[in-house]
């Protein structure tokens, strides 16, 4: 009986071990946690359009400036606009349906405006004709580049669509140029030009301005790594008086812009 009992016990142990091993074999392997498609760093690029009305005023007491082609005026509001392109980097954190982040961007800008005009300032009769003084002015405004650093906060409308608000610091390079030419002309009694003399004064100033920005946008996931966005920003860069201390008339310009752009982001992890 001893050997038989031993064999039965050994068989039971073997069957139990085999059954346990079989149970272990059919258990599903442990999977690595799935990365959240919104949380993490990203880089991207964008293109868009920038436009603004840069209200400009001649600041010299009693002076006038050729802001418009219709003649001598002391103020104007040029439509400064043009295409923009650039890149952005950022980081997002997701908490339930909320997404918070920080984004910085740097943009090239083709935004600009120009105007000018010619006007006759005075005409003085001479014994056998006249002498007249005319002025021609060309004004140019430019936004060379700008960059922003902004926190973002938004809500997921669905797992792939984020709508958000954003705002923060804006920095931009702005430029105003002015060229003024005075021309004296004498004419004989028949109206023919007998002599002319001209003098030109040209000055320009580039100013890097710090200000603020505020806007909103929407971003759509098109895969785990890629997303597309559309965004609007307002840039407020304050007011600066250009050409102070030069031979040109100082001009105070209110610098503000509207930015509309579309872009692609690539998530890095």
Primary descriptors:
mainly beta, 8-stranded antiparallel β-barrel, Porin, 1 helix, 269 residues, rod-shaped
- The succession of helices and strands, N to C, reads HEEEEEEEEEEEE
Strand order of the largest sheet: 1-6-7-8-9-10-11-12
Assembly category: single chain
Backbone shape: rod-shaped
Please report the number of helical segments: 1
Determine the CATH topology: Porin
- What is the rounded Rg? 35 Å
Protein structure class: mainly beta
Beginning-to-end CA distance, first to last residue: 68 Å
How does the major sheet shape up?
Answer: 8 strands, antiparallel, barrel
Number of strands: 12
The CATH architecture classification is Beta Barrel
**Beta-strand content:** over 45%
Poorly predicted runs of 5 or more residues: 5-10
Question: How much helix, percentage-wise, in residues?
Answer: under 10%
Average pLDDT rating: 86
Number of domains: 1
CATH class: Mainly Beta
Structural write-up:
The chain is mainly β and about 270 residues long. The chain has a single domain, classed as Porin. An eight-stranded antiparallel beta barrel has the order 1-6-7-8-9-10-11-12. The protein is rod-shaped, with a radius of gyration of 35 Å. The two termini are about 70 Å apart.
SSE map:
Layout: H1 2-26, E1 40-53, E2 56-58, E3 65-68, E4 71-73, E5 75-76, E6 79-95, E7 98-126, E8 129-158, E9 161-188, E10 193-221, E11 226-242, E12 251-267
Antiparallel strand pairs: 1-6, 1-12, 2-5, 2-12, 3-4, 6-7, 7-8, 8-9, 9-10, 10-11, 11-12
